[in-house]
């Protein structure tokens, strides 16, 4: 279980640091006269910071998969949401973003929540859920795309939140699907969870990009955090056998709530180019 906790925290560090490195590269590209999403991306991707950020994203994804194989989904989800705390701290150093006392307090709250979760979390559940769970995940992944298309037409005030929530749900599908895909083999090609993983991940990435480009970063990131933590945690407990240490369920619930609440308080760091 220790390996899983370390990997979950490592993934949070990778994702949080990658966001800042990519923001630095994007700002440099914009300062160089790049306009438009396509041109900005082409200039940014030529910089070592942006490439390093992509590399950290890849490493973080691998660590996330390893973590999901060793600790409950609720612990991994909370740790990934805590990447916002990493982003805030790194942004304060590299982007010279001023953190208020409340935001520094939120960073401390996130750390306290993760500590509580680490103390209370049991081992990864061994359940695979009902046979319909994998098909249900695939259906949810498809629904995410539909909802995202509709949400893109909403007024500015609610669009970013709806798109962020849909993106978070897509990432949540990935978290659960990882637990239902045993190995990379020809046999798994018949497993709907594999296609749920691919579709959910692709849909989530597209919708999150749209949310950050077309609305409030804070609202989009808040929706993302809620979507990728609450639903998967409930599925893990209800169907996949995720449990806590004996007598420490209350501490796990409290730690999860505290970590997510702290992350929500840091939602503006979902895309520090807007800070």
UniProtKB/TrEMBL annotation:
<feature type="transmembrane region" description="Helical">
    <location>
        <begin position="160"/>
        <end position="181"/>
    </location>
</feature>
<keyword id="KW-0812">Transmembrane</keyword>
<feature type="transmembrane region" description="Helical">
    <location>
        <begin position="132"/>
        <end position="154"/>
    </location>
</feature>
<feature type="transmembrane region" description="Helical">
    <location>
        <begin position="101"/>
        <end position="120"/>
    </location>
</feature>
<feature type="transmembrane region" description="Helical">
    <location>
        <begin position="73"/>
        <end position="95"/>
    </location>
</feature>
<keyword id="KW-1133">Transmembrane helix</keyword>
<keyword id="KW-0732">Signal</keyword>
<feature type="transmembrane region" description="Helical">
    <location>
        <begin position="218"/>
        <end position="240"/>
    </location>
</feature>
<feature type="transmembrane region" description="Helical">
    <location>
        <begin position="247"/>
        <end position="266"/>
    </location>
</feature>
<feature type="signal peptide">
    <location>
        <begin position="1"/>
        <end position="25"/>
    </location>
</feature>
<dbReference type="InterPro" id="IPR037185">
    <property type="entry name" value="EmrE-like"/>
</dbReference>
<feature type="transmembrane region" description="Helical">
    <location>
        <begin position="47"/>
        <end position="66"/>
    </location>
</feature>
<keyword id="KW-0472">Membrane</keyword>
<protein>
    <recommendedName>
        <fullName>Integral membrane protein</fullName>
    </recommendedName>
</protein>
<feature type="transmembrane region" description="Helical">
    <location>
        <begin position="193"/>
        <end position="212"/>
    </location>
</feature>
């Amino acid at each position: 279980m220790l390996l899983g906790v370390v990997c979950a925290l490592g993934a949070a560090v990778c994702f949080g640091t990658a966001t800042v490195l990519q923001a630095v590269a994007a700002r440099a590209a914009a300062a160089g006269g790049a306009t438009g999403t396509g041109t900005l991306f082409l200039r940014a991707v030529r910089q070592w910071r942006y490439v390093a950020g992509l590399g950290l994203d890849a490493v973080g994804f691998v660590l996330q998969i390893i973590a999901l194989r060793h600790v409950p989904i609720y612990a991994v989800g909370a740790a990934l949401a805590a990447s916002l705390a990493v982003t805030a701290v790194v942004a304060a150093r590299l982007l010279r973003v001023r953190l208020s006392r409340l935001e520094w307090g939120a960073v401390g709250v996130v750390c306290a929540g993760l500590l509580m979760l680490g103390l209370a979390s049991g081992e990864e559940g061994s359940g695979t859920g009902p046979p319909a769970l994998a098909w249900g995940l695939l259906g949810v992944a498809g629904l995410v795309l539909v909802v995202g298309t509709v949400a893109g037409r909403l007024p500015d005030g609610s669009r970013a939140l709806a798109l962020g929530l849909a993106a978070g749900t897509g990432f949540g599908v990935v978290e659960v699907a990882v637990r239902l895909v045993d190995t990379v083999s020809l046999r798994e090609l018949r497993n709907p969870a594999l296609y749920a993983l691919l579709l959910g991940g692709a849909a989530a990435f597209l919708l999150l990009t749209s949310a950050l480009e077309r609305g409030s970063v804070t609202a989009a990131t808040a929706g993302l955090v809620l979507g990728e933590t609450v639903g998967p945690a409930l599925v893990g407990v209800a169907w996949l056998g995720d449990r806590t240490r004996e007598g420490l369920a209350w501490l796990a619930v409290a730690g999860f709530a505290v970590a997510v609440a702290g992350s929500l308080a840091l939602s503006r760091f979902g895309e520090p180019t807007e800070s």
